[in-house]
Amino acid sequence: MQFPELITKLMYLYDQSMTKIIGGYPSYFTNSNHDTMFNFVVKKNRLLSTSASIANDELFVIFNLSKYINPKNIYVIGNSYGISSIALSILFPKAKLVGIDKFRTEGIKFTNNILKKISASNKVLQGDSPKDNRKIIKENFKNKKLDLVLIDGLHTNKAQINDYNSIEPFLSKKSVVIFHDVINCKLTKSYHSLTKKYNLNNFLLNKTTSGMALSFKTKNLNNNLKNYLQFLSDDFNTLLKLSNLYIKKSVKAKISKKVKPFKMPDHPQK
């Protein structure tokens, strides 16, 4: 599979559900608004979720990762309206995927309707991470270990630690864990604490939109994959030197007053 095929399938599945994936707009188009660089799901003139989903460049990272791993069991914490769960199901058609989300019941129904078209075994359940992880994993994967996990739930340092601790006993020796929004939501403290505690082979990708991270249980990685992830993980001194050289100047976009914004739903956690 090539990356355009992944995007084509995603677009088709959402179009068939009378929705559309929007986003991925550079911040200089939107008055330096970082959120518009992520993806959102809309129906007609209404955003279906307040939460920004995985960005296009991050989908590309996971696509490239798929060339080096072959997971059989995938677990997703945090689903919203399913872009990550559905993309992973497309990328790994032979894998079993189970996701959980506590708040977005409509998003769960929506995602499951699409997942049925991809795999009979893939599904998203309503559940509270970390409390329900053990039960859901044991019931759905039996004694099989998890090969790939995406942690994209409640974005606090405490929650990230608890999420990982709850799934760690179920990881295989070659597991890959994707942490979303690590830099974006100021979760580096808990991330570094976890990678040190469990001696993970970690890559904090500060060249991605959310500053997501990939952690491997194994130290033995393909050299091309390792070099690619290191390229996306420049040290912060380099970043600071460059940002101090080019001071960002906000340019106000000229937006017609006739264009009405999307209607925003209430956040389910409020």
- Nearest-integer average pLDDT: 90
Q: Helix count? A: 9
- Strand runs, count: 10
Outline the low-pLDDT stretches. 247-256
**CATH level 4 superfamily of the domain at 52-234:** Vaccinia Virus protein VP39
- Look at the structure and give the CATH class of the domain at 52-234: Alpha Beta
What is the chains' assembly state?
A: single chain
N- and C-termini, Cα separation = 40 Å
Instruction: Write the CATH fold name of the domain at 52-234.
Output: Rossmann fold
Q: Write down the secondary-structure element order.
A: HEEEHEHEHEHEHEHEEHH
Give the amount of beta strand, in percent: 15-25%
Please tell me how large the radius of gyration is: 18 Å
Give an account of the 3D structure.
A seven-stranded mixed sheet has the order 6-5-4-7-8-10-9, sandwiched between helices. The chain starts with a helix and ends in a 25-residue tail after the last helix. The radius of gyration is 18 Å and the shape is globular. Strand 4, helix 3 (83-91) and strand 5 form a beta-alpha-beta unit. With 270 residues, the chain is an alpha/beta fold. Mean pLDDT is 90; it is low at 247-256. The relative contact order is 0.13. The protein has a domain at 52-234: Vaccinia Virus protein VP39 (Rossmann fold, 3-Layer(aba) Sandwich). It is 34% helix and 18% strand. It has nine helices and ten strands. Helix 1 (3-16) packs across helix 3 (83-91).
